[in-house]
Structure formats: structure tokens, C-alpha cells
Amino acid sequence: MKKLNLIGRILLLTTLPVGIIVGTLLGSQSPISPQNCRSYAGQAVTGQSVFVDLCSVNPVSARSVNFTYFLGQQRINGQAHCSEGTWTTFHDGITHSPRSQATANMLDMVCRDGAGGEAWVALVIDPPSNVRSSPNGPIMCVVRSRQTINIYGNAGNAGDWYYTDACGSMGLIHHSQIRF
To answer: At the top level of its lineage, which domain of life is listed (predicted)?
Structure first.
């Protein structure tokens, strides 16, 4: 137990790359993010990891959402144009289209959670059901009864995992535990 507490402290006190290394050493399938708001979207065509800060998602109109994402270690603020499937980065004013599954996943996460992105509702069918911070990663909370929860889309590269806010912040639940 002391070893896990030490690792938890390291994750909280270190930068994201160290968290990724520790997460990989612990055997998780996707990098572990030290913040519950950061969600792994996959790898960009450049080979860099793409993370979305789900806590930054802020609808500004019926079709546009401001958000923050990370390309490798670079923090980027932008605006998703959900109906067009594009986003504009604020620092340079360039409008981008997805060139990788990661950036397509990023837009899906942002647009489902923001503009016009009403959550789906699913029934937890086989409690107790773990909600995790990454696929097969640390457990954030446990849904202990048959109940409905919000679902914000599939986790893309994570395969059979869906985003949910059942713990009060964004996490993942396995498809075998829910029915739409």
C-alpha cells in the first residue's frame, strides 16, 4: 500500500511524461494522466500523444466549443467547429481537419461534451462496475447498483470503452457493463 501511495504522490508532483512512464511500468494500456480531466485521444500523425482537457470544454455557440488539448507536452487552446468537423488553434488562427484517429477522437470528445453534444444515457447492467481513469487503469469509483449514467462517446483507440461522468469527473467504463 505504501508503494502505491508513493507512486500516487509521484504522479501528482511530476510532469506528464513521468506519469506516462510510470503508467506504462504499471501495465496500463493507455498513458495515465495525473489529472482526471485529461483524456487520452491517441497518437497524432507526428507520433505525439494527444490529450484533451475535458474540464476546459466550453460551448460558445450551438456549433462551436472552446477547449484545450495537449500535443505531446505542448498545451494548445482552440475552438472546435463541430458541424464542420474542424478546429482552429488560437495561437496561429489556423483551421485544422483531423489527419489521424487521435484528432478525430479529440473532436468527438469535445463536440459530444460541448456544442450539441448531449450525453447518451446507458444502463449499468452488471454492477458493481468500475469506472477507470484509463482503459484497465486505476479505478476512480464503482457504480454499485443498476442505474442510468451519462455516456459521452466511445474512447476511440481504447476500443470497447466509453466516457462517463458517473464519478463526478470524466472516466471510462467498459462496454460489457452498459446497455443503451
So the answer is: Bacteria
Provide the 10 A C-beta neighbour count for residue 2: 6
Tracing cell 489527419 back to the chain, one arrives at: 99
Band (pLDDT 50/70/90 cuts) for residue 106 is very high
Pairwise CA distance, residues 85 & 2, whole Å: 46
Could you tell me if 42 and 105 lie in one domain? yes
**What's the total number of domains in the chain?**
3
Please tell me the predicted confidence (pLDDT) of residue 36.
58
Question: Does one domain contain both 109 and 47?
Answer: yes
Domain's final residue, options 113, 131, 156 = 113
DSSP secondary structure, the chain, as one string: -HHHHHHHHHHHHS-HHHHHHHHHHTT-SSPPPSSTTEEEEEE-TTS-EEEEEEEEEEE-SSSEEEEEEEETTEEEEEEEETTTTEEEETTT--EE---SHHHHHHHHHHHHHSTT-PPEEEEE-SSSEEEESSTT--EEEEE-SS-EEEEEEE-GGG-SEEEE-TTSS-EEEEGGGEE-
Domain membership of residue 20 as a residue range: 1-34
pLDDT band at 119; cut points 50, 70, 90: low
